[in-house]
Design brief:
Layout (H helix, E strand, L loop, with lengths): L1 H10 L3 E9 L5 E3 L7 E3 L10 E2 L9 E13 L9 H14 L4 E7 L3 E3 L2 E14 L2
Parallel strand pairs: 4-6
Antiparallel strand pairs: 1-5, 2-3, 5-8, 6-8, 7-8
């Protein structure tokens, strides 16, 4: 009984999330010499707080597509709050910042669901872009 209680208490602080990036090749990447398919970014990583998120397209500025990104925020125990759009937006911004994106456009959110690996999950996806001017 004590082991079960300790396990529940210790896992009560756990959450996990996943992400996926579908990279498009672009002119601001360079081939690294270490591996034939490895790509290194020229620019330093952006701050996630500076990444713009929108459910629409951006039509007033020119941009290039860096790739489609997808993240999932999971609730690992029954004691956690359900994942929110705000948590998914934060993960999208973080993933976009890793790609040196200025914005994520065409953002879409899934619905909260349960699976064998989590008590609830919410996913989000969008297109990471970098402004060209």
């Amino acid at each position: 009984m004590a082991v079960t209680l300790a396990t529940i208490v210790l896992t009560g602080c756990n959450t996990w999330s996943t992400s996926k990036v579908d990279l498009k090749t672009s002119g601001t990447e360079l081939q690294t010499s270490g591996a034939p398919n490895a790509v290194a970014a020229i620019e330093p990583e952006k701050n996630a707080a500076d990444v713009i998120l929108t459910e629409n397209d951006i039509t007033d500025r020119a941009y290039r597509v860096l790739g489609d990104i997808e993240v999932t925020v999971n609730k690992t125990t029954i004691f956690h709050r359900d994942p929110t759009r705000e948590l998914v937006a934060l993960k999208l911004r973080e993933k976009a910042a890793e790609l040196n994106a200025d914005a994520v456009i065409l953002v879409r959110y899934g619905t909260i669901g349960m699976s064998m690996m989590s008590w609830g999950s919410l996913d989000g996806r969008g297109r990471a872009i970098a402004f060209t001017n």
